[in-house]
Specification:
Chain lengths: 573, 310
Amino acid sequence: MKTNKWLLLVALSLVLSLVLAACGNKDKDDDKAATPDKEDDKATEQPTEEAGEPDAEQVVNLIESAAIPSVDSAIVEDAVGFNVLNNVNEGLYRLNLENIAEPAMAAEEAEVSEDGLTYTFKLRDAKWSDGTPVTAHDFVFAWQRAIDPATGSPYGPFMMSGVIKNATAISEEKMEKSELGVVAEDDKTLVVTLERPVPYFLSLMSFGTFYPQKEEFVTSKGDAYATNSDNLLYNGPFILTEWDGTGDSWVYKKNEHYWDAENVKLETINVDVVKDSATAVKLYNDGKKDRAGVSGDLALQYGTHEEARNESDTAVFYFKFNQERNGEKTPLANVNIRKALAKAFEKEDLADVVLANGSTAANFLVPRDFAYDESGTDFRDISGDHLVYNAEEAKEYWAKGLEELGLTELELEILGGDTDLSKKMNEYFKAQLEGNLEGLTIKLKEVPFAVRLELDGNQDYDIQVSGWGPDFQDPISFMDLFVTDGTNNLMSFSNKEYDELIEATKDELALDPVARYEAFAKAEKILLEDEAAIAPIYQRGLIQLQKPYFKGLGVHPFGADYSYKWAYISGKE
Amino acid sequence: MVKYIGKRLIYMFLTMFLIATATFFLMQTLPGSPIASYNKLNQTQRAIVEKKYGIDKPKPVQYAIYMKNLAKGDLGTSFVFKGKSVNDLLASRVKPSFILGAQAMVFGTIIGILLGMLAALKQNTIWDYGSTFLAILGVSIPSFVFAALLQYWVATQWHLLPVGLWNDGWKSSILPSIALAMGPLALSARFIRTEMIEVLGSDYITLAKAKGANGFEIAFKHALRNALIPLVTVLGPVAAGIVTGSLVVEQIFAIPGIGEQFVSSIMTNDFATIMGTTLFFSALLIIIIFIVDLLYGIIDPRIRLSGGKG
């Protein structure tokens, strides 16, 4: 009996301590919530960086979210790999701090033929980290290697097909790789022939897949090429050291052979892989790291932190409405049903309250702060808002749709993610849609990412919460997804006018930027306003903590994520 | 003895074979593809990339190829770490995991034994309740919660030890080891307490006391040795607990170990690495269980390993 009482006491005190600990945290959050207006401004506005004198010691400590799978530009297919490539190597062009591609390995702007099919690049006098010159042959070799089926690269065919002449045929083993439309006229002149005019071609030139590789070095290393930092050659601002090929840490050192080395201030960048977001933030608070991403519930807590910055991301999330499942038409084949669903949920609340991670409501497919016309106008200001939340209209469409189907009630499945955040979001959708549309029952199906992709591939869902992040800066990277039989359509959507408009932007409108953007705007309206083939939800935002003394970091909304070339330390004690 | 060991070795190989087979076919039911940007290619291009990675072949053929290579000790090439062998991948990551696992095991069991003895010798005193309390904590709170608590208090609040990473020498290993050790500590404390109480009440202890042996001698020489036997039985499961705990604890402390790699290989459908890490962990456990069985004979001569008439 005596023992039992003791145990009870112990158990109670344990429970109590947990409760108290939880309260402690909550109080802190409440404090922050008490002054939302002031704090919110801080979170949404980018902290303005004041330029300062660089410190004597130029060392920065960073975090990556995953290990490097590969640094072979022909093979890389993941965010970390492309990020490393962008900082240790360099293509013909490089994205600057304003996210505009500017000549890098190319000495000057490319010479473009009148039909937009031939690009001639003059290379600058640049060196590899072994002191040998970078030549046009290095580009030819690397590009042929990336498209060669024997290399087994997914990104080579993905980036080059339909862009560079003969790329598709080579990737399908119908042509030799030597027939790829890229020729070294001499050591310093590279001529690229395209399949059809590609208005965004120069921005592609800053992408990792198009970087050069020195043939002699690659072949002499054989299978060992790019397996660790000693088996690599660099022509970018930094060189990679202390990378064993599979490890969770590596170091960038300034590349003294880099052509623009005098403008590179950082001497050393120490990187560690930290997958747990809470640990990353603890390391940041402890001063061990100078930057940390915050996600999930942490975003809610740190969104108002004075060192938090909201970094715009260009991934857009939307509902896919599947019109045909298991060979049979679904209720979503009815356009009024689709319109009703698309307009029946409040997006602002979702972004600000449920997600609360810097994401913004989306009434579009092509994201904001992503694609611009020649005068620098955001594509979003050319193409307006579509499918804005409107419960009244949604109810009308719903009634009409049900009548056309001869139904009074309907059960639909929403296929979504199974992370904590996704689950919260899915619950929100269920509440909003069922609340606004009478007779609707939503069944939630929450699965891991890979399972969702597989169900998507089999077109086995009703409504899916899906998203897309672009690899290059052009509306086509989004608009191409939903053409009839597109590899990512997978919902039996087909609209002839939409297909024709998209085809025109690649063909007769390719050299007319104004008409091309108008065509995209028109196509977007068809896809969203007229057809409600998909229903946009939000554009993703990311919250990062960054020490005020770490300045000049290049953050890119597409392609590689970051550039350290212009970054420096100023005012660190 | 030799016959026994030989027989055990054959069983061990059989077990490994069954684990390899089961894992291989279970893995095929994982949704998704190891090629991350699969959905960016057309049908023909996909087929070519699949062929390059050898995942276009029928499953039984893939299985036969895998088992043939495995027999040669080759765990294959990682799908994610391009061009790198799984053997190298494991080798480069085994050290941190081994250090953490060994420290947790040794620290956990030794402290656990001491606490258990203390509780038994001072039965129904504050010492007993204290160690019981610790044991309840250790059993009921998972290691990753301890990890987060230790991180918060010891590292973030008191700045005594690093928050994480593996770059601060032995200091980096302390907190994750403690987090992993809590389970074994609790388990062995409970076992030792129960056994000790039973042993202390037995006739031969009374006899030892009557003969005038001192308390220390009785506790360590006579009682502990007999109380250890049931503890040895649970060392196998304890080792398994440390291995599974390391999957999460390594991630929380950002330790570049095998457990952390196991988790990410499953997330990325890296078939070869999933197989490699599963087999590695299985082999480790099978060997530990084997050693534990051998230890029986040493601690308690009454248990005869050769069995039968002997």
